[in-house]
Design goal:
135 residues; eight-stranded antiparallel beta barrel; 1 helix; 61% strand; disordered N terminus
Length: 135
C-alpha cells in the first residue's frame, strides 16, 4: 500500500512541477544574442560575440553576468514576477548603482528557443533584446 501511495505522490509532484515549468517558459539559462538601446539622438546596438552575457532565471530570481570584448562589463540580479506577458524585474544587487532598487516591466514573447523582450517608457522604446535558451 505504501508503494502505491509513494507513486501517487511522485505523479502529483511531477505534474505540479510540469505545470509550473510550462507556466513559466523563462526558467533556465539564456545567452545574449543582440540588443538595441536608446541613447540621446538614437539607438546603439550590441551583438554577440563582442558582447556576451548569460542570464539565469529561477522561479523567483534572475541574475546575469556580461562581458564586452572578453572583459568583465557588468553583473546584477534580483527578484522578478511574470504578469500579462510582462517580465517585471527589480534589481537588488549589481555593479550599476543607477539600477539598484529599480523595477522595470519588459514585454516579452518566446519564439522557439528565443526570448524577445522590450522596455518602453512613455511610449518610447528604451531597450530591446534577444536571448537564446541554452538549458
Amino acid at each position: 500500500m505504501s508503494t502505491v501511495l509513494n507513486m501517487k505522490c511522485l505523479v502529483v509532484s511531477l505534474l505540479a512541477f510540469s505545470s509550473f515549468s510550462m507556466a513559466n517558459p523563462l526558467l533556465g539559462s539564456w545567452e545574449f544574442v543582440e540588443g538595441k538601446y536608446a541613447v540621446d539622438g538614437g539607438f546603439v546596438t550590441a551583438k554577440a560575440p563582442e558582447l556576451t552575457s548569460v542570464k539565469l532565471i529561477t522561479g523567483t530570481h534572475f541574475n546575469y553576468i556580461t562581458q564586452k570584448n572578453g572583459e568583465f562589463h557588468y553583473a546584477g540580479g534580483g527578484k522578478y514576477v511574470l504578469t500579462n506577458q510582462q517580465f517585471v524585474e527589480t534589481f537588488s544587487y549589481g555593479n550599476i548603482p543607477s539600477l539598484l532598487g529599480k523595477t522595470m516591466a519588459f514585454d516579452y514573447k518566446i519564439d522557439g528557443n528565443l526570448w524577445h523582450h522590450s522596455l518602453t517608457e512613455n511610449g518610447k522604446l528604451i531597450e530591446a533584446e534577444v536571448w537564446r535558451k541554452i538549458k
